[in-house]
Amino acid sequence: MAGILENVRLSGAIATARAAQLASRTLKTGGGSTVPGVVARKVDPEVLRKLSARLARGSAAITGTNGKTTTTRMIARILKEGGIRAVNNSTGANLVTGVTAALVADAGLAGYPASEIGLFEVDEASVPKVAAEADLRLLAVLNLFRDQLDRYGELAYTGKVIASAFEHLPPDGAVILNADDPLVASLGRTAKLAVYYGVDEPTLDMGRLQHIADSKDCPVCGTPLAYTSVYMGHVGVYRCENCGFSRPELAYRASEVRLKGARGTEFLLRTPAGEREVGITLPGLYNVYNALTAAAVAGEAGVGLDDIVHGLEEFGGAFGRVERVRAGEKEVFLLLIKNPVGFNEILRTFVTGEDARHVLIAINDNDADGRDVSWLWDVDFEMLAGADERPPIMVSGIRAEDMAVRLKYADLSVGSVIPDREKAIKAALEATPPGDTLYVLPTYTAMLEIRKTLSELGYTHPFWEDR
């Protein structure tokens, strides 16, 4: 009798959640990517645990500061190549409610998922809660950069929060870690099984740590780390001369990396199953790390190397992160920004080139963006100074004035300051000549607002429609 009541409660949670999703989208109050999870958990607090337990291959989670959505979608594309059906929170709703909503949407009213495996991006602070309920068998950590200190606190604390989830993995469950990030790599000391990935390309060495490097000291003993290569921020090849802590041995690696600007990236992928040349359409070294993480997760999930490579090469990007939108005779290039390291990589990869002549930066300080925008002063905008005939940079968002002041201190010309995101994107499009590209660098909620305007203008689709 108890089992029957449990199934009735589960079915009720699914039905109620679907009604909530329909209402959310019909009333245009959102994409219905979180509310269904909230409703389902109220009807049946065990809904996530029950549904995830019925996934034949268990679940995998991806966490870290930068790259969660892109990497999760990369993995989904690879799994599709391998003939494995995955359910994932592809819209980026990465709290436990978003994970629940994704599973509810995938399940039939009888409470059985249509997919074989769960694939979820998870907010760093939510990892323990998700791991306790979602039957995780793989947990990948991308990186840990200083980001939204008002929400997460210092990096060492964030690392401890993530590591506390390891106990919820089964004995054969693997933690997949970025070996080039010292703090992330150090988390492997408390894992039952740790698999490491990283970049092996000395030509990408920046020569020295940037002033924005976050984890300069050994996470074991606190001594300053000695680097032989610095790739970005504090990410690179390192060793502690005091206690011997160093970059772990790599199971998955990228070497012979060729960065081709906005046209993408090529590299040699080495895995336990062999090696292959890979060409991805996504630009920048940070996307090489995303691809490496995706390859490692897929490889540890049992996907073959050929499917991994084909999936990576067929992947075209995640909405708003690195997304090209055709706007009539013009193109909009959306590039999400959220912290100094990521912003610097975006500037270095795209804006320092001659092609990026029309730029709009949109800074919000809503909860999802982080209330503290002092991090803008740590971004190396000075790398753009001195460029001949660079058009003024337009700024928008709730903190448009703050962004304008920062650009002026970098001796950069500031164009229109339009706090309203809808008006700003329309003005920026109007100022972009036919045949040119408008580069839009928004924080998260500004990106959603700008995408909404582009969707209403008929240039793209709503973010919850995965195409």
Word description of this protein:
The chain is of the alpha/beta class. It folds into 2 domains: 2-22 and 30-314, Mur-like, catalytic domain (UDP-N-acetylmuramoyl-L-alanine:D-glutamate ligase), CATH 3.40.1190; 322-456, Protein-Tyrosine Phosphatase, Chain A (Alpha-Beta Complex). The protein is 35% helix and 21% strand. The chain contains 15 helices and 17 strands. It has helices spanning 2-26, 35-43, 47-53, 68-81, 96-106, 127-133, 149-152, 155-163, 182-186, 285-300, 305-314, 340-351, 400-409, 421-431, 444-456; strands at 59-63, 86-88, 117-121, 136-141, 174-178, 194-200, 226-232, 235-239, 252-259, 265-271, 274-280, 322-327, 330-335, 358-362, 393-396, 414-418, 437-442. The strands form 3 sheets. A 9-stranded mixed beta sheet has the order 2-3-1-4-5-6-9-10-11, sandwiched between helices. Strands 12-13-17-14-15-16 form a 6-stranded mixed beta sheet, sandwiched between helices. Helix 3 (47-53) packs across helix 5 (96-106), helix 10 packs antiparallel against helix 11 (305-314) and helix 14 (421-431) crosses helix 15 (444-456). It is globular.
Q: According to CATH, what is the class of the largest domain?
A: Alpha Beta
- Please state the second-level CATH architecture of the largest domain: 3-Layer(aba) Sandwich
How is the largest sheet built, in terms of strand order? 2-3-1-4-5-6-9-10-11
Oligomer: single chain
Named CATH topology of the largest domain: UDP-N-acetylmuramoyl-L-alanine:D-glutamate ligase
Key attributes of the depicted protein:
six-stranded mixed sheet, UDP-N-acetylmuramoyl-L-alanine:D-glutamate ligase, 467 residues, 15 helices, alpha/beta, Protein-Tyrosine Phosphatase, Chain A, nine-stranded mixed sheet, 2 domains
